[in-house]
Amino acid sequence: MNVLVTGGCGFIGSNLVKYLRKHRPAWTVVNLDKLTYAGNLENLTELEKDPKHVFVKGDIGNRELIDHLIFQHKVDAIMHLAAESHVDRSILGPEAFIVANVLGTNVLLEAARHAKLSRFLMVSTDEVYGSLGPTGLFTETTPLDPSSPYSASKASADLITLAYEHTFGLDVVVTRCSNNYGPYQFPEKLIPLMIANALADKPLPVYGDGKNVRDWLQVEDHCAALTLALEKGQKGGVYNIGGNSERENIQIVKMILAAVGKPESLIKYVTDRPGHDKRYAIDASKIKRELGWTPAHTFEKGLAETVKWYLDNRPWWERVMSGAYKTYFDSQYAHRLQG
Ligand code: NAD
Ligand code: DAU
Q1: pLDDT in tens, 55-93
Q2: Which ligand has an atom closest to residue 126 CA?
Q3: Residue 297 in 3-state DSSP?
Q4: Does residue 50 have an active-site annotation?
Q5: pLDDT class for 322, splitting at 50, 70, 90?
Q6: Ligand 2: which residues within 6 Å by Cβ?
Q7: Quick one: which ligand is closest to 189's CA?
């Protein structure tokens, strides 16, 4: 099998590329990534000399390039992860999200359709369902009701993908997962940002009252689920993926402070994210029942391992937090920290 992974230098993508090389050694992985601020080849240093990992720097919106890669590498299937992924950035500037997430996905779908690929796996998100009240879970039939420019762009891509199955017969599978955590996550997202700030004795900016709930999924568990969905998912099927680990943000922030031995006085409650979804919680029973997936990590074990990884890999996150990113980071958080 030759698989084209898009966004393979980002957080989930780089974990997925490594997962595939380890667990599907016969496969060739072609990794197409534009290397935006969130993409980093350093995440894949261990595959530098691996002949079955082919890195190509490029944009998913470049149809000519996609056609060429499919032909040159005899690509059988696409696992599509490339995206603008950060909700806060989509509030500051939605356009990049429409271009990458909506138009970029459509270019890939067109290429897949014309090349008659055997499968197109669209990595969507639980944010397409919108926000839950205090009870209930998202199932695959929950109506889509996205709130942010990010989640609206992902919902568009998700629905366009399903439309390609319905209209053109393209073999697609859509996965909708909850919040991932683990190694190589860019320190703009809750868990790595809080670890990095705590280690630097900087304030930990908690939005609103800190009682918003996310349902956490360890990234390797997610990669295992994506691989199963690619191999065994039903054509046109949608699969929720979640770690059954609901936590309030403030609980996580306190767990991180305890893990790195820093005081809770570093917590700073700041102005809430506009349109902040209150609660996400996933019913993952379909993928468990149909594809035999089960997550291997408990949240406590996974978070402890993640904190250790950030402690052991300080040069990595110090480098990615410097330069161009730092300008965005400082301006955004300086503003938010005013409370
Ligand atoms: P990330 O921001 O860490 O990585 C995104 C990658 O895509 C980067 O390497 C970037 O360079 C690349 N990219 C962006 N635009 C591109 C373009 N036009 N052409 C080629 N490459 C491009 O994101 P992530 O957290 O790893 O998320 C990966 C996917 O999973 C995204 O589609 C995201 O919507 C989805 N998802 C993420 C989570 C999560 O918790 N992180 C949860 C649910 C779904
Ligand atoms: O649910 C899946 C989604 O999870 C993915 O589709 C997105 O790509 C991914 O970024 C993530 O979105 P969130 O908005 O949930 O993740 P984030 O890490 O930005 O925020 C998690 C929660 O923590 C959210 O309730 C906002 C809050 N938060 C976040 C940051 C960055 C804070 O309180 N303070 C912060 O500084």
Answers
A1: 999 999 999 999 999 999 999 999 999 999 999 999 999
A2: 2
A3: coil
A4: no
A5: confident
A6: 85-87, 125-127, 178-179, 189-190, 193, 205-207, 212, 214, 249, 273, 280
A7: 2
Ligand 1 center from residue 263 Cα (angstroms): 33
d(CA 155, CA 249): 24
Which position among 33, 84, 129, 150 bears the catalytic label?
150
Q: Which of 86, 85, 88, 67 is nearest to 4 (CA)?
A: 67
Q: Dihedrals φ, ψ of 192, to 5°?
A: -65, -30
**126 catalytically annotated:** yes
- Mean pLDDT in residue range 94-107: 98
Q: Are strands 246-248 and 213-218 parallel, antiparallel or unpaired?
A: antiparallel
Number of residues in the chain: 339
CATH 3.40.50.150 is right for the domain spanning 2-181+219-241 = no
Helix (H) or strand (E) holding 286: helix 285-291
Q: Per-residue pLDDT tens for 302-313?
A: 999 999 999 999
> Where exactly are the structural domains of the chain?
2-181+219-241
State how far the alpha carbon of 103 is from the alpha carbons of 107, 128, 181, in Å. 6, 17, 27
Q: Identify the active-site residue in 84, 126, 158, 220.
A: 126
Contact between 281 and 246 (Cβ < 8 Å): yes
Question: What angle in degrees, to the nearest 10, is found between the helix axes of 190-199 and 299-312?
Answer: 50
Single pTM value for the model: 0.97
Q: Which two tokens stand for residue 1?
A: 């099998």
Share of the chain above pLDDT 90, in %: 94
Pocket of ligand 1 (CB under 6 A): 6-7, 9-13, 32-36, 38-39, 59-61, 81-85, 100, 104, 123, 125, 154, 177, 179-180, 186
Does 265 score more than 80 pLDDT?
Answer: yes
CA of 40 to the centre of ligand 1 (A): 12
Residues 81 and 5 sit within 8 Å (Cβ to Cβ): yes
CA of 175 to the centre of ligand 1 (A): 14
